[in-house]
Each structure stands twice: as structure tokens, then as C-alpha cells.
Specification:
Largest sheet: 5 strands, mixed
Number of strands: 9
Radius of gyration: 27 Å
CATH architecture of the largest domain: Sandwich
Bound molecules: copper (II) ion
Structural class: alpha+beta
Strand order of the largest sheet: 3-9-8-5-6
Number of helices: 2
Strand content: 35-45%
Distance between the termini: 71 Å
């Protein structure tokens, strides 16, 4: 009787000692919580802007740094998104964009960005990244 009891206890002890991965899982969960709490602006978001009728679907918008803007070409003609930033980001040319395609740009830095189509300069969009 005492012998079988000893065996149960020792099995229980063994289960605690041979499962260090449980500690790693707990540490991982804690780290994930810490990242969530310490991220000041929450998760980055995606915004969609259409190009239709040779216009952007908005003339201005505000986003957070780290957000991505997806530009859809809903026209039957080529567009060419060009993004200019007065600060360190300079100019980004997203290239010739065929109809029914999308290009995206991640705005990493705070600032004011002028988005134009180099083919149709009247297409203008101001993006304020906070
Ligand atoms: Cu265009």
C-alpha cells in the first residue's frame, strides 16, 4: 500500500520536473502580453483608397505611423502613384499601375505626405501620418 502511494507521488514529481516547456509557454504568454501593453498605438491598420474617374476616393486623410494604404486602380487607364514627403522619407514612386491592380505603401514615419499620380497630376491626396 505504502509502496503504490510512493509511486503515485514520484510520478507526480516527475511530471513537474520533465516539463520545462510549460515554463517557456508561460514566459511566451507573458512576453506577448508585455508587447500588447507596450505598443502605444495598437495594431497597424490598412486603409484602401480607390482611383476611379481619375480621382482618389479621398482628398485627405489621417493615419497612424505604421499604417498601410492600399491604392486600387479602378480605372481603365494606367496610374502611377508617387508619394512625396517633405521630411526624410523623400519621394517614393510606386510604379506604373495597370487597371484592376493594387499597390500598397507603409507609412512608417510621422509627417505630411503628398500623394499624386504622375500621369494625372490633378489626382492629389494629402496624408497626415501622426
Ligand atoms: Cu493617374
Amino acid at each position: 500500500m505504502s509502496r503504490s502511494l510512493f509511486r503515485v507521488v514520484s510520478t507526480g514529481m516527475a511530471q513537474w520536473t520533465v516539463r520545462p516547456e510549460a515554463l517557456w509557454i508561460a514566459a511566451g504568454l507573458l512576453a506577448a502580453c508585455a508587447i500588447l501593453v507596450s505598443t502605444p498605438k495598437g495594431w497597424a491598420a490598412d486603409f484602401v483608397i480607390a482611383q476611379k474617374g481619375l480621382e482618389f476616393s479621398k482628398t485627405d486623410m489621417s493615419i497612424q505611423s505604421g499604417d498601410t494604404v492600399i491604392f486600387n486602380n479602378n480605372d481603365g487607364v494606367l496610374h502611377n502613384i508617387t508619394i512625396r514627403n517633405s521630411g526624410d522619407d523623400g519621394t517614393s514612386d510606386l510604379g506604373i499601375q495597370r487597371p484592376n491592380t493594387s499597390v500598397s505603401y507603409k507609412f512608417k514615419n510621422v509627417g505630411i505626405y503628398a500623394v499624386v499620380c504622375s500621369i494625372h497630376p490633378n489626382m492629389r491626396l494629402k496624408i497626415i501620418v501622426k
